[in-house]
């Protein structure tokens, strides 16, 4: 039997309760898991397009640690500065360690080097892993976009007017 996914508003839950009970009574014997969580809204496409436009402009003018970054590399840098780290099922930050010479960002573009250590004579590089912006809620994306906008202002890159930025962010807030 396939799983069951229900989306509901709290004030309408009583209307579907009977259907849930019927479904559960028809399940095979065994252990099941029920999780209820608040549905988060994703970021808006307009805000996403705007973030990439600004990131592209930043990559044209910024040099970070002596290197000119591509648009994709600049996007990753903005994720490291203003984005959301990946969290595991236990609520811990996801960190990977690789043997020296293995560059995790070649496999995971949003992995940032955070240090090195030695174990039994071998050097390991440690990375913090971040979520891609396509996984952000509207609230997380508004924080991300606000950081990019500030970077642009510091570099003298024109952004939308404060009213237009507020409009984009309010559209995101309204979708929460």
Give the topology.
Blueprint: H1 13-25, H2 45-61, E1 63-64, E2 67-68, H3 71-82, E3 95-99, E4 111-119, E5 122-129, H4 138-154, H5 162-174
Antiparallel strand pairs: 1-2, 3-5, 4-5
Helix pairs in contact: 2-3, 2-4, 3-4
How would you describe this structure to a colleague?
With 176 residues, this protein is an alpha+beta fold. It has one domain (45-174): NinB fold (Orthogonal Bundle). Helix content is 41%, strand content 15%. The strands form 2 sheets. The protein has a 3-stranded antiparallel sheet, with no helix packed on it. It has a two-stranded antiparallel sheet with strand order 1-2. β1 (63-64) and β2 (67-68) form a beta hairpin. The mean pLDDT is 83.
Q: Quickly name the level 1 CATH class.
A: Mainly Alpha
Mean pLDDT: 83
Number of helices: 5
CATH fold title: NinB fold
Assign an overall shape.
flat
Largest sheet: 3 strands, antiparallel
Give the helix level as a range of percent.
40-55%
- Our estimate of the beta-strand percent is 5-15%
**Total domain units:** 1
Distance between the termini: 33 Å
Strand order of the largest sheet: 3-5-4
**Category from helices, strands and their pairing:** alpha+beta
Number of strands: 5
Radius of gyration from the CA trace? 22 Å
Shape-level CATH architecture = Orthogonal Bundle
Order of helices and strands: HHEEHEEEHH
- The low-confidence parts are none
């Amino acid at each position: 039997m396939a799983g069951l996914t229900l989306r509901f508003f709290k004030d309408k839950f009583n209307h579907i309760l009977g259907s849930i009970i019927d479904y559960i009574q028809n399940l095979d014997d065994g252990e099941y898991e029920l999780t209820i969580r608040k549905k988060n809204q994703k970021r808006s496409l307009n805000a996403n397009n705007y973030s990439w436009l600004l990131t592209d402009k930043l990559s044209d003018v910024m040099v970070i640690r002596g290197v000119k970054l591509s648009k994709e590399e600049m996007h990753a840098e903005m994720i490291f500065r203003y984005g959301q780290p990946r969290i595991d099922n236990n609520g811990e930050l996801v960190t990977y360690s690789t043997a020296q010479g293995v560059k995790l960002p070649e496999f995971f573009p949003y992995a940032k080097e955070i240090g090195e250590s030695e174990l039994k004579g071998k050097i390991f590089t440690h990375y913090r892993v971040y979520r891609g912006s396509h996984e952000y809620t509207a609230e997380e994306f508004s924080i991300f976009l606000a950081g990019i906008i500030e970077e642009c202002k510091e570099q003298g890159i024109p952004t939308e007017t404060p009213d237009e930025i507020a409009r984009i962010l309010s559209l995101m807030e309204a979708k929460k």
